Amino acid sequence: MGRTPCCSHEQLRKGAWTVQEDQKLIAYIQKHGTGGWRTLPQKAGLQRCGKSCRLRWFNYLRPDIKRGKLSHEEEQTIIKLQAVLGNRWSSIAKHLPMRTDNEIKNYWNSYLKKNYEKQVVDPSSPKPISTDSSTESKSSDLSMVPSKKTDCYEPDATPQQSHQQSSSKSMPSSTQLLNKVASKILASGYLEAIKSCQPVVAVNSNSENVVKTGIVLEKDNNGDPLLTNSASATHSITSAQLLNKMATSLPHKAHGLAAVKAVFSKLKEVSEKGDTVSDGSFISSDQVGGCLNTFSPFEDGPQLITKIIGTSSSPIFNQMTTPTCFSDNEDNWQCVSSNYVSFSNCAASGGDCSVSEINLGESSSSTQCFLFENADLGTCDDEISRYIQYL
DNA sequence: AAAAGATTCAACCGCGGTACT
DNA sequence: CAGTACCGCGGTTGAATCTTT
Description:
Blueprint: H1 19-32, H2 40-44, H3 50-61, H4 72-85, H5 89-93, H6 101-119, H7 139-142, H8 172-188, E1 210-212, E2 215-219, E3 225-227, H9 230-233, H10 239-248, H11 253-273, E4 276-279, E5 285-286, E6 293-295, E7 304-310, E8 315-327, E9 333-343, E10 353-359, E11 366-372, H12 381-390
Parallel strand pairs: 9-11
Antiparallel strand pairs: 1-2, 2-3, 4-7, 5-6, 6-8, 7-8, 8-9, 10-11
Helix pairs in contact: 8-10, 8-11, 10-11
The chain binds a DNA duplex (21 and 21 nucleotides) through residues 1-7, 14-17, 35-38, 49-52, 54-56, 58-60, 87-90, 101-103, 105-107, 109-111.
């Protein structure tokens, strides 16, 4: 394919940018926006190549990036995601709001890689989520679970309990499970115990879409939440509404923590009566930057609700839901859960695990799936088809 | 205080993907 | 269908800075 060199002009400047150049670039982009990088330098009066301008803007000048040392939570997220995604820095960066791929890449190469390799024998070969919850689906595996981009970052609980990216849509299987649980909680009368709590506005409403208990809530033209899952919409009270009502109707922090834990303990109890099991481990921690507090409802671990589809001896796939709760500056509490699926028969032993986001049905439906890199995607068709049928 | 070595990180470079003609 | 243009990504470089001797 023919390709002209991007920066062939000898008169173009290279090297460190001056303050004047930065100002020119900022002024131009503020006026005209980004894009058209090839012609931008000329229009902006810069003796730079377009690629250089783009890089300078995205990695340094744009206003929505956070600079400075990465937090411990961010470090952990990078380590986890790097194990799953490899050196796909732009993908990793999507999970770290306000951080650039270049910054993450540099941080990994200069610091994390060395430190991490001291701790892990073979970080390049993470295990997939086990298809047998009685054996391998413990915290080490869970740490490989990727997240979607968060608008409110959660430390140790991340990456598995993030909000879904705005491009993602409903998660029907999660919804089914949660609605099932919700209906049982409703039937038990447990909800009555918290009905006296005052309603509180949900946090993080600045995002375009907010995932609440596995259901993506889009906003309508008026900015009001819009349920995208018809099954939920027909419920008298959806799981999202129920759990968020529980979680956000708590006026005081101490009371809120205790109450939300109680809610999820109940949820756990109800879940275990059905065809679900719980395991895993993660701990609560305070949060910085956006969310003040976040915790797992289960003190003794990140308690997945793992649902084996098929039989325990011959699982077709695992379906997992990971709940967490967090609050904003106003001490408004919200609960979130994310949904993941691992396909057992697509896994070829000994291969590296990768994460693929597969569209499992209508264009609006996507679920994170765990596959082995050396598995033939074609062989997964059957499993995926069965999963779609299940949904 | 100065030289040497190590580290950091902004920037460069080439390639792949994709839209357009 | 081929050529071209553009964008974005990831590997690499090298100047600046920091640390050690």
